[in-house]
Amino acid sequence: MTEPASARIAADLRARISDGELAPGDRVPSTRELTRRFGVAMATATKALTTLRQEGLVRSVRGVGTVVAERSRTPHPRATAPGPAADRIVDTAIRIADAEGLATMSMRRVGAELGIATMSLYQHVASKDDLLLMMIDRAFGEELLPAGPPESARAALGTSARTQWSCYRRHPWLAQAMSLTRPQPVASVLAHTEYVLTALDGLGLDTTEAFNVQIMLVSYVRGIAINLETEAQAEAESGMDNDEWIRAHTDPLKSLTAGGNFPMFERVTALDDFDFDLDALFELGLTSILDGLTTRLTHP
Asked: Which residue range(s) make up the domain with 39?
């Protein structure tokens, strides 16, 4: 039996909303636009929008038209308990994001890679947001934290930070996907919080102070890692890696220091062997943080 035209239109708009192409507050195509695009009667286009309105995906705004409704951020249960089919979807989404960046990963792209219709994905993954939660959970779950108690708080913080860094290194998109101020409910990420809080327990910090230490650590690692995908994109667009780019732009930097206003930085531009190494920068910052925390915990 042929699918009704109104259902096809509703499915198309539903997919665009789930993909984020149409974000909350965005105006959706009017019935007039839909009639032109799909070659249907006004009544058919109206029925499609009515269906989405009944599902809570869109709402009418006086003087504006029909817009995408605000959606709940509560994760769908399937986001935390994927089955075999969902596993394939997550694997494919991660492979796309690893190779081309998070911006290229959409439900439509994943469906195309799997050779199935986009709407079929929603039988296993509730939305693109839920798929992203699954991807984050899978990425952070690839490296497990030690099962036994850490030998010290410093060791625990170092282990957690380096494990996170390794995950970000393996998946450059991951830092872009994470949020510090609106943390995602992901079990493999929460494991790091539990691990660090357990190590800090009994060392004189109250719960708020200990949690702030964990937040600072997570923020530091993510702050360095955020450059991984940015650099990968820049390299793909320019055809130059970081070292090649710096060499190509040395002369403009030297011209800024020629007047003697930046004598210390002039010494940097004179270096022939400076290696901008994110791994080394990460370790330098982490060691400094751990040194400071160790001193604080030992001498409150």
From this structure: 5-68
Phi/psi at 60 (nearest 5 deg)? -95, 135
Q: SS3 for 84?
A: helix
Count of domains forming the chain = 3
Is 246 contained in some domain? Answer: no
CATH number of the domain at 117, please: 1.10.10.60
Domain boundary among 117, 140, 163: 140
pTM of the model: 0.67
Residue 74 has phi, psi (to 5 degrees) of -65, 125
Q: Are residues 133 and 159 in the same domain?
A: no
User: 89 and 121, same structural domain?
Assistant: yes
* Alpha helices by DSSP H, the chain: 5-19, 31-38, 42-54, 84-100, 107-114, 118-121, 128-140, 153-170, 174-177, 187-200, 207-238, 242-248, 250-257, 263-269, 278-298
My answer on whether 161 and 290 are in the same domain is yes
Q: Under DSSP, is residue 30 helix (H, G, I), strand (E, B) or coil? A: coil
52 plus 163 within the same structural domain: no
Residue 211 burial by CB count (10 A; 0-12/13-18/19+): exposed, middle or buried?
Answer: middle
- 279 found inside a domain: yes
d(CA 296, CA 173): 34
The Cα diameter of the chain in Å comes to 79
pLDDT digits (tens, 9 = 90+) for 211-266: 999 999 999 999 999 988 877 666 666 676 666 666 676 777 777 777 777 788 77
Phi then psi for residue 275, to 5 deg, are -115, 110
Please compute, for residue 179, the number of CA atoms within 13 A of its CA located in the half-sphere on the CB side: 8
| pLDDT tens per residue across span 186-195 | 999 999 999 9
